[in-house]
Design goal:
This protein is mainly β. 0% of the residues lie in helices and 52% in strands.
Length: 393
Amino acid sequence: MYFPVYGQLHFSDLPFFPGTARDDAVAVVHNHTLYCGFGLVQGFFYENDWWQFDLTTQEWTSLPDAPLSPQQYLRFFVIGDNLYLYGGTNGSRPENATHEFWRFSFNTQKWKPLQVPPFEPRWAGVGFSQDNYGYLGLGFNGDQNFKDFWQYQPQKDSWLRLPDFGGKPRGKCLGVASLKEGLVAGGLNEESNTLDFLKDIWHFNFKTKTWEQSAAELKQEGAYFYSTALANGFLLGGGYYADSSTGPEFLKKMQYYSGLNQKIEVIGTLPQNFGRGGSLVQADGGDFYLLWGLDSDLQRVDAFMQLKWMQDLPQEISFFPNPVRGGRAYLQSKPVRQWALVSAQGQVIHKGHFKPPNSFQVFHWQNLAHGVYYLRLSFWNQSRPKTIRVLKL
């Protein structure tokens, strides 16, 4: 018996996006501000508009249009105070691929074109960053899928080719970076005029630069997900699947994948109007935000919602894995003031406090004696601490 940390999903409406409804656009959070734009909008034309939403005041602001071509399916990553955007398309053929690479400064809000990457033009691949490097790869160009994978070095504005992705070539898949690894899951291989939807999960080790397939798979083959990274894995929602016998299907389940124990579980369901091809982003405080996409009637949406997860504690806590397996685990909790690791006999083994607020704590268990251990959490807004059974050695 243990207390599960993962609670229900709670959705709340935010001010609707004031621009045109769209799918497969760009959305990223930096310093408690959401920046977003591009995509295929209602009416079937492409955009290069650029917006910001202040998560504190909950106000939208229209910024000057980006100097990139109007397009959808861009991939991007953040390094420091800069956003890097690549690729995209304004059509369905190879000649429509927009083989551009740009940098946007969050501080100055200025755009700068960078050198064209050394790989073939494509769209809808994966993009993420880790340790001041960017990573791009995979994708589709209208005729073929790719599996090459590249590291971007911003100091030199140069690219280094890394080992090819270990699974099938694909696009429209999940691609995120957790604390230690890059993660790729699901997606669509569109070669030979067939639609091959996938559900495998892959890890990229940033140290060894190697790919390894997970022991787990997504609950359903699919592509065009809402997804974002977590400390040790990812959160995934929605998506799309099509089969010659059953026809198209919009996937509604929210799934959580733990990269530490390679386990995936269904944790809830997306709201009705969020189907596929939108954005799921996480802010610094641990809240998630849903934006855009296509609903089950193939109508583009301008809905904007906040998603809170793990409120059954009743505080916002994520502790993974729980119970602990292996020698390490992670804790993130927005309102926690202090923590203590306590034995079954009530002895405090370790204790500490969060500084700065909302940061991760890493717990190492290798030197603990056999027994049952609890995590005691004290909150700023609650007099009594919350205790979670986290470990049995």
